[in-house]
Amino acid sequence: MRSPLLAAALLASAVAAPALAQTMASGTAAVSDATFVKKAAISDMFEIQASQLAQTKATSADVKNFASKMVTDHTKTSDQLKSIASAKSGMKPPTTMDAQHKALLGKLKAASGANFDTLYTQQQVQAHQQAVMLFTSESQTGKDTDLKNFASQSLPTLQQHLSMAQGLQKGGGTP
């Protein structure tokens, strides 16, 4: 009885392994276009609101300058996403953040001084890592041509944001 069960388990893992390896190698997992719209909209909302806080609460001029760029750039991508999604059936972007991002924003609101700057840059690195993965996935596997093109065109800016946030996190200012 063990032998057929073991054989089935080995066969299942052999079949699943190439797909898992491909996903791990590319660092992305395919998401539906509707999920992309939802996650991208929430990401933009978080980036904008967190950066608006940073414009007033940050102590570092570099952090404030970065935050200003984030508000400008993410407002632009948010508007573009809304425009594209509004023409699609069943892809209306959410108008509020999910609980996870609300909690992150709450932590940011509670922080002050140098602790605020550290937390903000840490959150920006994480948020941009997630955004780069999300937009990479959509640019590679998206079904909707408009969304796929939007993701591809937005990706270099998100990668630049990630690099800038990592520079701030290391204390080197923005590149």
Which features would summarize this protein structure in a list?
single chain, 175 residues, Ferritin, disordered N terminus
Task: Explain this structure.
The chain is built from six helices and no strands. With 175 residues, the protein is mainly α. Helix 2 (33-57) packs parallel to helix 4 (99-110) and helix 3 (61-86) runs antiparallel to helix 6. It has helices at residues 2-26, 33-57, 61-86, 99-110, 113-141, 145-169. The N and C termini lie far apart (62 Å). The chain has a single domain (32-169), classed as Ferritin (Up-down Bundle). The longest helix has 29 residues, at 113-141.
The tally of beta strands, per DSSP, is 0
Count every helix, treating DSSP H or I runs of 4 or more residues as helices: 6
**Superfamily at the CATH H level?**
Ferritin, core subunit, four-helix bundle
**Fraction in helix:** over 70%
**CATH fold label:** Ferritin
Q: Spans of 5+ residues with little confidence (pLDDT < 50)?
A: 1-27
